[in-house]
Amino acid sequence: MTTALAHRWFELLKLGADEDIYTFQEVIKGKSGPKVNIRDKPVYMMSSYDYLGLIGHPEIESAAIDAIHEYGTGTGGVRLLTGTNVLHHHLEKSLSRFMGTESSMVLSSGYMANLAVIAGLFSKNDLVIADERIHRSIVDALKVAGIQPEPFRHNDPLSLKSVLEKNDRVKRKLILVEGVYSMDGDICPLPEILALKEAYRAFLMVDEAHSLGVLGKTGRGVAEHFGIDPGRIDLFTGSLSKAIPANGGFVSAKEEVILYLKHGGAPYMFSAALSPANSAAALKSLEIIDKETWRLNKLWQNTSRMMTGLRKGGILTGSTQSPIIPVSCGKNEDAAKLSKGLLDQGFLATAVIYPAVPLNSAILRLCGTAAQSADRIDQFAEALEELYTTVIKQS
Ligand SMILES: Cc1ncc(COP(=O)(O)O)c(C=O)c1O
Question: Is the Cβ–Cβ distance between 339 and 20 less than 8 Å?
Fold first, then answer.
């Protein structure tokens, strides 16, 4: 960390403490869900990634508990050596079926999955072209791999085309996008990106952390959303900690790619295998997503209700197309003041500030989930409208 960055953080923390507007790392007592206990008060959750409201699902909890009884709490090693159990194999098969790919591998997080793919398959001799708003885990993976990426303008196929055109002679090219962008909530224009990938013979990796369980008629993700055969996409990565209420990450791709990554992807080889409880919870979640299809419908109904309420109140929500709703706040302090004001009224809506978003583009990052109630969404939109008028419009 540079000294300037450290100073800025300490100044921000001091401001947060002086003005009592620090709402990061609020301690939740008990389970997360639509209603949580914070500072010994009931608080309604408006920013959780638990898109389908599956945290606390009794069948998922039972699967995790049974797995602990049968397989223990830890795996005792990395996958390649002593850490592989039968749950990993079941989960990998199930993920491949879900994603529509030949094969999959699971790792201890989505962050690790991105690192495994990028550093395992690409090097500085390749051209890596990344959407400028790509997730930090991918930015870090590129650094580890010693790759200086060529950025293209966010969600802009023309900008991608011009980078591809300029570098047409480079042999191996990789395009990096997300299904749903984690801070903006917009969806990657997959048909146009795919056409360019094929025209310029590039590889394409799609991070489905926020689109799995969320996009498409059955929650398969961005390919299903656009009616595209997932077999046309070289690499999918994702997290098991958002619509799927566990921890862990995965890569889905052709069999030979996964076989290679299981022997050449460092996070698979040098980081402990996914725990039995997480494997079993993720496995059961995939089953529940297919069984309880009402959850996906409810997620989108709630998202639409939230958007309607916010728009009615004149609240700016960027260009979102998904349950991720970024409320534009501008200054870090304003986002923090809004978040604290809402917490005082019994809502947890988290502020996201630089470097997670560009400087002076702080947001309140709201998430619609299937677990929220219509009444609560309406109450929240009203509370936010009032605060937004005093904090943001008068700032
Ligand atoms: C787009 C994206 N990719 C990857 C990750 C990392 O996933 P995990 O939390 O499982 O490490 C995240 C997490 O927030 C994300 O938003």
Answer: no
* Residue-by-residue DSSP string for 276-345: HHHHHHHHHHHHHHHH-THHHHHHHHHHHHHHHHHHHTT---TT--SSEEEEEEESHHHHHHHHHHHHHT
Residue range 21-48, pLDDT digits in tens: 888 999 999 999 999 999 999 999 999 9
Cβ(190)–Cβ(232) under 8 Å? no
Our mutation pick for probing the ligand 1 site, out of 239, 247, 271, counting the most ligand atoms within 8 A of Cβ, is 239
CATH number of 3-30+293-391: 3.90.1150.10
Give the H or E element holding residue 252: strand 249-253
* pTM score: 0.96
Domain 58-291 carries which CATH code?
3.40.640.10
CB of 209 sitting under 6 A from ligand 1: yes
> Is there an atom of ligand 1 within 6 Å of 137 CB?
yes
Whether the Cβ atoms of residue 177 and residue 187 lie closer than 8 Å to each other: no
